Amino acid sequence: MSQTVVFVGDGLTVAGRWNEWLPEYEVQNLAVSGYTTDEVVASLPKVVATAPDAVVLQVGTNDLGWRRSDEYIVRNLETIIVELRKHLPGARILVVSVPPRERDYSHLLRSINRHLRQFAPTQHAQFLDLWPSMAEPDGELSIALTTDRLHLSDEGYAAWTAELKPALEFLFQSPPSSTAIPIQHV
C-alpha cells in the first residue's frame, strides 16, 4: 500500500501535477489558488480528516499581496505546523520554503524562511529550502523558472520536483514524530 501525501497551500501548490510527478505516492492536493496562511489555518480540519501519512505545506506568498508582515505570516505558519503536529501526531510533515518571487519581496521572504527553517524541527517537521535551486543571487525568482516572477513555469515545477522527491524519500526514512517525555511532578 502506498503512502498518502497531502499537499496543502496556495496556487503554486495547486498547479503542481503531483500525482503525475510522484506516482510512488497516493497524492491528494488540497491546495487552493489564492489561499493565504489565514485560509490554510481555517482549512486544517479538512486536512486532518484525510489522516495522511505525510503533509507537504507550502503557503505564504499570497499574504505578501495583502501587505502582511513577515511576523504575521510566520505566526500563521507556526500555528499551521503546531496544529498539524497536534492533530496528526503520526504524520510526517514537510515544510517547503516560501519560494522566491520579485526582488522587492526577497528581504521579507528570507526572513520568513529563516524562521521556518528554525521552527520546523521544534515540531518534528522537515524543512525543504527551494531557494538554492530557484533564486537568483539578488533573491528574485529565476527568469528560467517563471513567466511573471511569481508563478512557476514547467521548468520551475521541474526544479521543485527535483528537490521534493529526495526530501520525501528522506522524510519517509525518518520516524514520523517524537513525543516529548512528560515530566512528573513530585
From TrEMBL:
<dbReference type="InterPro" id="IPR013830">
    <property type="entry name" value="SGNH_hydro"/>
</dbReference>
<dbReference type="Pfam" id="PF13472">
    <property type="entry name" value="Lipase_GDSL_2"/>
</dbReference>
<dbReference type="InterPro" id="IPR051532">
    <property type="entry name" value="Ester_Hydrolysis_Enzymes"/>
</dbReference>
<protein>
    <recommendedName>
        <fullName>SGNH hydrolase-type esterase domain-containing protein</fullName>
    </recommendedName>
</protein>
<dbReference type="GO" id="GO:0004622">
    <property type="term" value="F:phosphatidylcholine lysophospholipase activity"/>
</dbReference>
<dbReference type="InterPro" id="IPR036514">
    <property type="entry name" value="SGNH_hydro_sf"/>
</dbReference>
<feature type="domain" description="SGNH hydrolase-type esterase">
    <location>
        <begin position="15"/>
        <end position="159"/>
    </location>
</feature>
